[in-house]
């Protein structure tokens, strides 16, 4: 009777173990469904969700570091046609994006519109010098007039330059160059980022994800239009993806991330590079591919971004983007810092540049479950073009069209320690706890089942031997 009880108990234990293991197995898909449902609910942009709280507020501090390029041989360039030589001066650091989104308005088509306030506060402790530091750089008015005014009227440009004692290069303070100064030639204000302070970017209209979480954060309209209208091409004018602050949840490594940047007047994509530990959180690092600014010869998709055959050497020039169409005709070219991934001629036309992949690439660190961008570095270089002239005196020695680097910026933000701990507690730890429970139940269940089953066979074998004896 005792032996029978032991066998029955072991069978019962094996059954319980099997049930526990099955429960653990069931929890895997059920747990995934619970996680997915919770994340999708909190990722919707509407009051009361985690996504909205992070989205609407100013969030982590965003800094813009500026490195300006100083010409060390301006007289030789003008008088003898020497190749310009530049040195990098910086960083001069400003806090930007410190204001919350403005004019937030929800619409019936599951979109929300808003404005992004622009502003910059100088951070002396994070800078190499004061805003009053002087830099010798390209004269924006001369380069702008050269391109904007028809060649047959260049004699007027030459007269204006001479009457104001101006030249191809000028010496001004960092503050003037970045944020504006009264120009004697054009009788108006000029600056690298003249229209930035006390202005707005947008309005943007983005999908809330309420009806389809796959669309959350994706841009529906910018400045009231679903097309950019800068490139005269449906593909290049497309608003594609989000504003890069977040993406739809459950990001997959194999899928590129698309986002629009008003700074470069176009949409781009970033591809998975590697997984990074960010304050105890695993994030996917995405970066721009070299093909982003490749010449149309290497990337045919970029053909519609090439608008000037002469200055782009018949669209063979790589690494720069002519954005004059969205800069009121000003000869502005965007590139990665130091012409990273650009044609070698860009670095022989202007000497002193040294691109470095790690220091000069743009990247995003995205937490894959939530789709939130927790850390990023947006690196952009602003350049202007000037060229040869038989009429404008200060350009008579110039041999060819030159894309001259003015400044490059590194816009960065990362989550602080407090936010990181909250993120780990509210999301990561809960997911990990559920996974642990799943694995423990499965492991314990299988272990109990196997031990009880082995015990049953051992007891049964022993009983059979006694009966034979």
From TrEMBL:
The membrane topology term of the UniProt record is: Multi-pass membrane protein
Q: Which GO terms describe its biological process?
A: amyloid-beta clearance by cellular catabolic process; cell adhesion; defense response to bacterium; immune response; lipid storage; lipoprotein transport; long-chain fatty acid import into cell; low-density lipoprotein particle clearance
**What InterPro entries does the record tag this protein with?**
CD36/SCARB1/SNMP1, CD36_fam
Where mainly located?
membrane
Disulfide bond entries: 236-304, 265-326, 306-315
Transmembrane intervals = 7-28, 440-459
Q: Does the keyword tRNA processing apply?
A: no
Gene Ontology cellular component annotations, sorted alphabetically: apical plasma membrane; caveola; cell surface; Golgi apparatus
Q: So which residues are the signal peptide here?
A: none
A single Gene Ontology molecular function, please? Answer: low-density lipoprotein particle binding
UniProt entry keywords in alphabetical sequence: Cell adhesion, Cell membrane, Disulfide bond, Glycoprotein, Golgi apparatus, Isopeptide bond, Lipid transport, Lipoprotein, Membrane, Palmitate, Receptor, Transmembrane, Transmembrane helix, Transport, Ubl conjugation
Q: Where in the cell is it found?
A: Apical cell membrane; Cell membrane; Golgi apparatus; Membrane raft
Family membership, please give it.
Belongs to the CD36 family.
By what name is this protein known?
Platelet glycoprotein 4
Organism of origin: Poecilia formosa (Amazon molly)
């Amino acid at each position: 009777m005792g032996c029978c009880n032991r066998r029955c108990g072991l069978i019962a234990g094996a059954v319980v173990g099997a049930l526990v293991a099955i429960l653990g197995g069931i929890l895997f898909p059920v747990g995934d469904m619970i996680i997915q449902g919770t994340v999708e609910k909190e990722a919707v942009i509407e009051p009361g969700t985690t996504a909205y709280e992070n989205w609407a507020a100013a969030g982590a501090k965003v800094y813009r570091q500026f490195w300006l390029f100083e010409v060390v041989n301006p007289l030789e360039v003008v008088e003898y046609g020497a190749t310009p030589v530049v040195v990098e001066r910086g960083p001069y650091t400003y806090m930007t994006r410190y204001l919350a989104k403005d004019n937030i308005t929800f619409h019936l088509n599951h979109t929300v519109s808003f404005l992004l306030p622009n502003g910059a506060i100088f951070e002396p402790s994070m800078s190499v010098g004061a805003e009053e530091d002087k830099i010798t750089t390209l004269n924006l008015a001369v380069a702008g007039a050269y391109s904007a005014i028809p060649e047959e009227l260049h004699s007027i440009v030459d007269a204006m330059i001479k009457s104001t004692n101006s030249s191809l290069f000028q010496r001004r303070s960092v503050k003037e160059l970045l944020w504006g100064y009264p120009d004697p030639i054009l009788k108006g204000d000029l600056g690298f980022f003249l229209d930035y302070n006390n202005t707005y970017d947008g309005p943007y209209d983005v999908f809330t994800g309420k009806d389809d979480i796959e669309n959350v954060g994706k841009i529906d309209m910018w400045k009231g239009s679903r097309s950019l209208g800068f490139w005269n091409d449906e593909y290049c004018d497309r608003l594609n993806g989000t504003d890069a602050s977040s993406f739809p949840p459950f990001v997959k490594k194999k899928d590129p991330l698309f986002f629009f940047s008003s700074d470069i007047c176009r949409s781009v994509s970033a591809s998975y590079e590697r997984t990074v530990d960010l304050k105890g959180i695993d994030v996917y690092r995405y970066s721009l591919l070299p093909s982003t600014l490749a010449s149309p010869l290497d990337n045919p998709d970029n053909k519609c971004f090439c608008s000037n055959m002469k200055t782009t050497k018949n669209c063979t020039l790589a690494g720069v983007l002519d954005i004059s169409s969205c800069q009121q005709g000003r000869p502005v070219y965007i590139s990665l810092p130091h012409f990273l991934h650009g044609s070698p001629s860009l670095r022989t036309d202007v000497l002193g540049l040294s691109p470095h992949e790690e220091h000069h690439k743009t990247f995003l660190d995205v937490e894959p479950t939530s789709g939130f961008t927790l850390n990023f570095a947006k690196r952009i270089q602003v350049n202007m073009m000037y060229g040869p002239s038989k009429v404008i005196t200060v350009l008579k020695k110039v041999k060819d069209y030159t894309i001259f680097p003015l400044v490059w910026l590194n816009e960065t933000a990362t989550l602080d320690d407090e936010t990181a701990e909250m993120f780990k507690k509210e999301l990561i730890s809960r997911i990990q706890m559920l996974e642990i429970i799943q694995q423990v139940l499965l492991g314990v269940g299988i272990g109990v089942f196997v031990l009880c089953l082995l015990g049953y066979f051992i007891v049964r074998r022993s009983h059979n031997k006694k009966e034979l004896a």
